[in-house]
């Protein structure tokens, strides 16, 4: 009989503990921050205008742990280039999956931290081998692709300003 009382007392404490836990507010879905959340500053629409071209890049939020994006280059009234983009986590590494027009998809990887700059790299890729995004305040982003082509180091800069999403 004493064993049952101890068991009953322990059971009562256990039930009380579970009741207390059940009374706590549940965490909202997606509340746990993941690596992609650190790139929230990239979310939105960006553009780069020159005398002859408009380059637009748009990124979704990191909801669900992934950013989806696209880029489009328009010269006069014709789309010259486009690219579908995805940034998603593999552990604490972020993968940048790019599918450019008329080319095979490629993946690049970045290791933390991702505060104001993120560098994605794929040394085996033809060009570029690195894709870099750097936050410049709240209204501009500097993107750069770089690598080696024909034995020479090359780079292309894209200075984007925040734009209205259309």
Tally of helical segments: 1
Overall number of structural domains = 1
- Residues in helices, as a percent range: 10-25%
Q: CATH first level: which class?
A: Mainly Beta
- Largest beta sheet: what is the strand line-up? 6-5-4-3-2-1-10-9-8-7
Radius of gyration: 24 Å
**At the third CATH level, what is the topology name?**
Lipocalin
Low-confidence stretches: 1-7, 13-30
Structural classification: mainly beta
Seen as an oligomer or otherwise, the chain set is single chain
Task: Please indicate the percent range of residues in DSSP E strands (runs of 2 or more).
Answer: over 45%
Number of strands: 10
Named at the architecture level, the CATH assignment is Beta Barrel
Sheet with most strands: 10 strands, antiparallel
Between the first and last Cα atoms, what is the distance in angstroms? Answer: 75 Å
Give a description of the structure.
There is one protein chain. The protein is mostly beta strands. The chain has a single domain, classed as Calycin beta-barrel core domain (Lipocalin). The chain has 1 helix and 10 strands; from the N terminus they run H-E-E-E-E-E-E-E-E-E-E. A 10-stranded antiparallel β-sheet has the order 6-5-4-3-2-1-10-9-8-7, with no helix packed on it. A hairpin with a 3-residue loop joins strand 1 and strand 2. The longest helix is centred in the N-terminal third of the chain and has 22 residues, at 2-23. The radius of gyration is 24 Å and the shape is globular. The termini are far apart.
